[in-house]
Known about the structure:
The chain has helices at about 20-30, 50-55, 80-85, 95-105, 125-130, 150-160, 190-200; strands at about 1-5, 35-40, 60-70, 70-75, 110, 135-140, 165, 180, 205. By secondary structure, it is an alpha/beta fold. Strands 5-4-3-2-1-8-9 form a seven-stranded mixed β-sheet. The chain has a two-stranded parallel ribbon with strand order 6-7. The longest helix has 12 residues, at about 150-160. It is globular. About 45% of the residues are buried.
Amino acid sequence: MILDLHTHSIKSDDGRAKVQNYCQWIRSRELPIDGFVLTEHRQFDLESDYASLASSFDLCILKGAEVETEYGHVLVFGVTEPLMREFDFSDIHLPLAKVIAACEKHNAVPVPCHPGRKRVGMCAHLEEFGVPEGVKIVEVFNGGSRDQEDAVAQAMADAQGYRGIGGSDAHIVSHVGRCATRFPARVNSEAELVEALNAGEFEAITYRESA
């Protein structure tokens, strides 16, 4: 099963894509992905229910979040209401250690995203803050990466022994599915996604010609 683990809808302040339009684009372009995860900026969307859309388009639509720490942006998979009470998702100065500890407590998975990017990527902060404890997975293929950003991320992952995921970081419809993550078995829920990530049985893939 192939999932794009990093997308943004109009729920994000800089997102311009409606979820239904993502679904229509995936099917009309026959993209080789089976679904996507909506990782909205600085929030977890408790309100929206995409079950009907998922059924109509035979796609898996899951939800996560993207939060901001001193090490840059971090995707969080397996968000629950108890986890949301542990820290303020809207805080742009979250300590990464606090995010990781909360995720461990509530069986969620934190994944630094686009780590090769300046300012908002983890690699840019290693010299100042050192290698953080508790990171196990990072995003090594990002659909919005430029120049050598993915190469920097991959080099760091190799050096630190991190596993890698892929996600498009789509903010507009036509960018969905640029990068994704392949799992050996079906993933049907946020809980199953967490289980698959914790099992370490996945592979980052990219469909970008320049990657």
